[in-house]
Each structure stands twice: as C-alpha cells, then as structure tokens.
Amino acid sequence: MSVLMVVAHPDDEVLGAGGTMARHARAGEPVDILFLADGVRARGEASDVAAGERRMAAARNAAHVLGARPPRFLNLPDNRLDGMELLDIVQAIEAVIAEIGPDTIYTHHHGDLNIDHVLCQRAVLTACRPQPGSTVRRIFAMEIASSTEWNAPDGGFAPTRFVDIVETLEIKQQALRAYAEEMRPFPHARSYEALEALARWRGATVGRAAAEAFVVLREIEG
C-alpha cells in the first residue's frame, strides 16, 4: 500500500489521521503528505512569512515523528482557495499523484466549516477521477477537530471506517506537539485532552480502546 495524505493545512494530517499514518509507516508502507496552503497567512499577522515558515518546519517535524516522508507544499492562498480556479488546484494535485502513484488517499470531509477543506476534497475527487489505469483504489475522508464538528448539523460526519490506533495514539500526540503553536487549552476541540477523548470515543463505538474514524469515498477490491 502506498499512502498519500492531501490536506489543506499543516496540522490537518495529524488531527485527522495521525495514528493511522503511523500505522501505515510501521507496516513499511510509504506515506506522503501534500499541503495545499500554510494555514497561517490569512490571519493578517505582521510576521506572516515567519509564521508560515514555522508552520512548515512543524509539518516536517511531525512527519518525522509519524514515520512519513518529508512533506510537499503547494503554498496556495491560505483560506482563499475559493478564489482560485478549481482546475489549477486539481492539476497541481494530479501532478503529485502522477509522480507518486498512490493507491490510498486520505483527505477532508465535504462538510467541514473551513472552505479550504471543502475545496481540497472536491479537488482530490476531481484529480482522482476513476479512469482506466488510475493507481488510486481507496479514498477516505477524515474528521478535523474544530472544523468538521463546527459546521451545521446537515453537514455531519458519519464514519463508515474505523482504524484501531491504540498502539499509535501516543505517536499521534507526539506529532501534535510539533504543532504546539496551533494547539489550544482544554476544553477547546483542538486540545490534547479533547483529541485523546475523541480517539477514545471513536474506539469505544467499535469496541476498541482508541480509533480514528473515516468516511469511505471510494474503495475498489480485486
């Protein structure tokens, strides 16, 4: 299995699937990460360039902790993907898919509050059109704490796939520490305590001690 994580911003990959990524890496399966935007330059900070560089450095550190390959950055406009032509985003993703040839892709859920997340999933599905010869056999959508659950109820996340991360939950927490600048105190949804509670709850719903949950967008067997 060859895995590609396509996400809008650095920290999304760990929030949504850090434990699962670590499982893939432990199994000897290559894990690549593609970030569309840096996640900070839309905040209007005076030091937005420095903040963006720190966020990319954090992404590299988190990837190392998880056992993934060094990440790739497209540096598209942060929180402004809706101002771009969708085709430009799709073609950038297509180029990475053509180079790597992954069979499994993790990305965002269509119901997230963050517009970059929404456009990311749409671009991924367009880039992964099921044409003959495509390497992509599985596409999974993940939940991002402080985005997926913040949207209106009709955009609700209804998982259909669960990955046991009891053995990699601590690795996920270590990777989150690389993004300490982005973490918040409990009871914020993006706190260490809340994310562990989410993993425990997702696990308990399927009789496991800890899990990450996904929606199956595509899965081809045989």
Shape: globular
- Main β sheet profile: 7 strands, mixed
The tally of beta strands, per DSSP, is 7
Indicate the proportion of strand residues.
Answer: 15-25%
**Share of helical residues:** 25-40%
CATH homologous group name: LmbE-like
- Return the CATH architecture: 3-Layer(aba) Sandwich
Radius of gyration: 16 Å
First-residue to last-residue Cα separation: 14 Å
Sequence of secondary-structure elements: EHEHEHEHEEHHE
Task: Characterise the protein shown here.
Helix 1 (12-26) packs across helix 5, helix 2 packs antiparallel against helix 5 (169-177) and helix 3 (86-100) packs across helix 4. This protein has one domain (3-219): LmbE-like (Rossmann fold), CATH 3.40.50. With 222 residues, the chain is α/β, with parallel strands linked by helices. A 7-stranded mixed β-sheet has the order 3-2-1-4-5-7-6, with helices on both faces. 44% of the residues are buried. The longest helix has 19 residues, at 48-66. It has helices at residues 12-26, 48-66, 86-100, 115-127, 169-177, 192-204; strands at residues 3-7, 31-35, 72-73, 104-108, 138-142, 161-164, 211-219. It is globular. The two termini are 14 Å apart.
Architecture blueprint of SSEs:
Blueprint: E1 3-7, H1 12-26, E2 31-35, H2 48-66, E3 72-73, H3 86-100, E4 104-108, H4 115-127, E5 138-142, E6 161-164, H5 169-177, H6 192-204, E7 211-219
Parallel strand pairs: 1-2, 1-4, 2-3, 4-5
Antiparallel strand pairs: 5-7, 6-7
Helix pairs in contact: 1-5, 2-5, 3-4
